[in-house]
Amino acid sequence: MNIKDVERLAELARIELSNGEKKELLPNMESILGYVKQIEKVKEDSDVGRPNFGRPTSEIQINIWREDEITPREFSRELIINQFPDSKDGFLKVKKIL
Amino acid sequence: MIDLKNLTIEKARKSLDAREFSAVELAQTYLNEIEKKNAELNAYLEVFDDVLEQAKKADEMMEKGESYPLLGIPLAIKDVILIKGKKVSAASKILENYIASYDATVISKLKKQGAVFLGRTNMDEFALGSSTENSAYGVTRNYYDNSRVSGGTSGGSAVAVSAGMALAALGSDTGGSVRQPSAFCGVIGLKPTYGGVSRYGLMAAVSSFDVIGPITKTAEDARILFDNIKGNDPFDSTTLPNKNSAEFKSKLSIGVPWNLINQEGIDSKVKENFKDVVRRLENSGLKIKNIKLPNCLPVYYIINFAEVSSNLARFDGVRYGLHLNGDNLLEDYLLSKGKGFGRESRRRILLGAHVLSAGYYDAYYGKAQKAREALKNDFKKLFSEVDLVLTPTAPTPAWKIGEKSNPLSMYLEDIFTVTANIVGVPAISLPSGFIEIEGPFSQSSSEAKKKLPLGIQFMASHGCEDMLFEVGKKFEEVSKL
Fold first, then answer.
1. What's the complex ipTM?
2. Coiled-coil regions in this chain (chain A) (predicted)?
């Protein structure tokens, strides 16, 4: 890993970093990645299929379905609009994309 | 005067129903404690301005003859669980002024019962850390020694209960965030089975690990709080179907992974305390068996970084939260995220982007998911041989604030707790006594010695929380001897 890798990751994540922080992050990330690299030695089952996210094995790989019915819920429009950094006539205002 | 020191949810319920004191009086007593202690300890980020109104409503419900387990019970809520109309920031600058637009399911359940929410408690930003030092709003100090950390990430909740600033609290546990601060603060913390409690309205850190859990003073209180927040929820498709809890035999066998406990890096006083606990449990008639567990930290942290990086991507300053203006949209993102996220969050987002990137995916994330499956299979086998697994909750007692400046050294603190999150089993941390520490202590303390609490952790099979409460009660009796 080098400073260019840190810059590339920061760009991917859309996070602006100062030069000082980049320099500090590099050895941190190297030592952390060096540690988790131990994963190489961990045994694995060859046929594990899809990960089942912590469910007991007997209940894995079932999709949770529900009927496609509309059940109205009350949300305060005002409360949500008040969170917008910028709004106009009840719409969220954003900068132009292109 | 209400005796807060010995008060439990169980006792408060009886006293409230017998009109020995009112919910308003109880809430006011806690507000007085908070007023006295919070400036120093920084457990609460905000004490709600409607606490007495909530308590008054609870009193009115009681006047009408209503009674629920948590009616009028004053609770502290971690700053990552949404309460409609209240600020909720995940202890981050990026959500400093964010106001929740709905109630989390756990909050709706508690509101229905007339529970009283005292305020929102401090934590590591976005539940990333082990000490509450990663909060954007300052560290939470340990009640037993204010120069030490409270543990984390639910440090504020643990200190609120430990210092008598709340009767009980809610935290969230991703890799030990309920259990480890509970151990550092001498209280009880339960991490329920994955999917046991709805996470609708809990801000996500690591979606495949996160679960909401109670922090209390007794095992019975943990049971009461858990029983009243658990259950299937249509708004959280990862919740488990409602089931009656499994029956279990009265003579429990306990596995102890001595290979993990006897390794380097485990504090000698923690080991000593733990060995003493094992002896006492053996003397009380429980069967102890030697088992082996692997070091699960690499698996845990790889998955943690990966999921954190995708979960935190939503905070971009467009729809809510901190928005900093640049020359174009891209600059808005760069500035808002760069300034809004704290150091540890930024670090984990980058690490997550790395372990998920095309060239490294198989070596890190792919491999970790496979190892996770293998570990789950191992645990299935393990729990056919023993009923419970016992370890210390943490390898050290609470450390000095600022002592662990290297992030990796902090990660290693989670060695005993992450396993339960990886396999999704429930686990409880119970106070296991105190160690003495020598001064000098910060500020003008004249004491030469202080006590610091330690904790032990029991893990049980999926859905077996009742077994944990049972062994917790048994351990409370054994500890009194």
1. 0.91
2. none
